[in-house]
Specification:
Blueprint lengths: L16 H12 L44 E4 L3 H10 L3 E2 L4 E3 L2 E7 L5 E6 L5
Parallel strand pairs: 1-5
Antiparallel strand pairs: 2-4, 3-4, 4-5
Protein name: Glyoxalase
Length: 126
């Protein structure tokens, strides 16, 4: 339930990468290796089918708020509602707002470094 199902390559800095890696492991279920990262193979056994989106937003976008970064990572998830409930129970900073559209369901959490993280449950079959 708490496993994200895929992203492309995302690289960013932290003043305390070990602490931040542990937060992503403990709360989002990433399999963070000793080298500090996680791998999401596409199309293999147990992995999601799909794609990774790359997009540039205008400087004045509100999409990153209330996060403090100029980027946002979007993680695919299997059950958004269950994950958001689990994150709230774990004391994470989960935003109240969610969105549903033809593209799926979206929710957000703020990581310990102040980065807004998007959680996306794709429509069935995607």
């Amino acid at each position: 339930m708490k496993r994200v199902t895929g992203i492309g390559g995302i690289f960013f800095q932290s003043a305390d990468p070990v602490r931040l890696g542990a937060w992503y492991r403990d709360h989002l279920g990433l399999d963070v290796g000793e080298w500090g990262g996680a791998v999401f193979p596409w199309g293999g056994p147990g992995s999601a089918s799909g794609m990774t989106i790359w997009s540039v937003f205008a400087r004045d976008t509100k999409k990153m708020e209330p996060g403090s970064a100029t980027f946002m990572v979007n993680f695919r998830v299997d059950d958004l509602d269950a994950l958001l409930a689990a994150l709230r129970a774990e004391g994470c900073d989960v935003l109240d707002a969610t969105e549903s559209s033809d593209f799926g369901k979206f929710g957000w959490v703020i990581d310990p470094d102040g980065n807004k993280v998007e959680l996306w449950e794709p429509p069935a079959g995607q």
